[in-house]
């Protein structure tokens, strides 16, 4: 099965949580838990914790990501951080297009595309988030929404660069609500996204691409989700803030 070709990747998205001391405590607890796991392990942390995270994860199998980056290299963009700035620090991954950025910070498909391009050309790997709102699912347009977001995000991106993208399917109605998509619902959309990628880049790239599920994925429901053919890991919010819970996800994804 093609799933065997792909490494499962569990990424934590800490969002706007943890001060430096708390970040250090969590990472130190995570290190021994992650050490023997075969899945990819990423923690995406607030900018203020990047230095701590990079320092504490040196020589471990935990990779560090940021939660956003701007599309310009530098300039008058108060409050923004460029992809080059992240790369220079030693950051490896960046989340782009999270639904909270789309909902609360006016992120659009156009800016998601620009940020994705900037991140890739700076040499970062991207965790690209797509997903429908509840009303869109109820209107039966989930696939249209997700296809548009995916195609828009990859506009102007080469097949070679696309290999450095992980897609996270995160239905907005499942984020932080405790309401998970059923494993079948998640699988259906992740499989559909793989077809969209295949249409653009061909089957080989689509088969090799890691497609995660995100949205109230936790230590209790992860086994069923991760067993699905097209779900190659998870982007985890709440459950990534507690080492033992995150550890269960890592163990499950390493089976
Ligand atoms: O948004 C998410 C990860 O990016 C999911 O958050 P929760 O796991 O807290 O629902």
Automatic annotation (TrEMBL):
Active site positions, chain numbering: 98, 170
Pfam families registered for this protein in UniProt: TIM
PROSITE patterns according to UniProt: TIM_1, TIM_2
Keyword Isomerase assigned: yes
Pathway(s) where this gene product acts: Carbohydrate degradation; glycolysis; D-glyceraldehyde 3-phosphate from glycerone phosphate: step 1/1; Carbohydrate biosynthesis; gluconeogenesis
Molecular function in Gene Ontology: triose-phosphate isomerase activity
GO biological process terms on file: gluconeogenesis; glyceraldehyde-3-phosphate biosynthetic process; glycerol catabolic process; glycolytic process
GO annotation, cellular component aspect: cytosol
Catalytic activity reported: D-glyceraldehyde 3-phosphate = dihydroxyacetone phosphate
Broad class of enzyme this protein falls into: isomerase
Broad class of the protein's primary localization: cytoplasm
Transcription regulation listed as a keyword: no
Protein localization: Cytoplasm
Residues reported to bind substrate: 13-15, 176, 216, 237-238
Enzyme Commission (EC) number: 5.3.1.1
Record keywords: Cytoplasm, Gluconeogenesis, Glycolysis, Isomerase
InterPro entries: Aldolase_TIM, TIM_sf, TrioseP_Isoase_bac/euk, Triosephosphate_isomerase, Triosephosphate_isomerase_AS
Protein's job: Involved in the gluconeogenesis. Catalyzes stereospecifically the conversion of dihydroxyacetone phosphate (DHAP) to D-glyceraldehyde-3-phosphate (G3P).
UniProt record similarity statement: Belongs to the triosephosphate isomerase family.
Subunit structure: Homodimer.
Protein name per UniProt: Triosephosphate isomerase
UniProt source species: Ruminococcus champanellensis (strain DSM 18848 / JCM 17042 / KCTC 15320 / 18P13)
Gene: tpiA
């Amino acid at each position: 099965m093609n799933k065997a070709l792909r490494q499962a990747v569990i990424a934590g998205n800490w969002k706007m949580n943890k001060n430096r001391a708390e970040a250090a405590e969590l990472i130190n607890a995570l290190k021994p838990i992650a050490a023997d796991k075969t899945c990819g392990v990423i923690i995406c942390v607030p900018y203020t914790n990047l230095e701590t995270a990079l320092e504490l994860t040196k020589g471990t199998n935990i990779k560090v990501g940021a939660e956003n980056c701007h599309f310009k290299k530098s300039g008058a963009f108060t409050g923004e951080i460029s992809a080059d700035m992240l790369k220079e620090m030693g950051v490896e991954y960046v989340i782009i297009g999270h639904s909270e950025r789309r909902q609360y910070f006016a992120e659009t498909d156009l800016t998601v595309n620009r940020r994705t391009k900037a991140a890739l050309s700076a040499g970062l790997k991207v965790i690209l988030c797509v997903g429908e709102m509840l009303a869109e699912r109820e209107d039966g347009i989930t696939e249209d929404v997700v296809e548009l977001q995916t195609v828009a995000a990859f506009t102007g991106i080469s097949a070679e660069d696309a290999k450095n993208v992980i897609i996270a399917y995160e239905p907005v109605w499942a984020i932080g609500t405790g309401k998970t998509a059923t494993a079948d619902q998640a699988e259906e959309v992740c499989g559909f996204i793989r077809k969209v990628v295949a249409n653009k880049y061909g089957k080989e790239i689509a088969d090799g691409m890691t497609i995660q599920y995100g949205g109230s994925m936790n230590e209790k429901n992860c086994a069923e989700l991760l067993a699905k053919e097209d779900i190659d890991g998870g982007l985890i919010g709440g459950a990534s803030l507690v080492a033992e819970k995150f550890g269960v996800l890592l163990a499950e994804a390493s089976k």
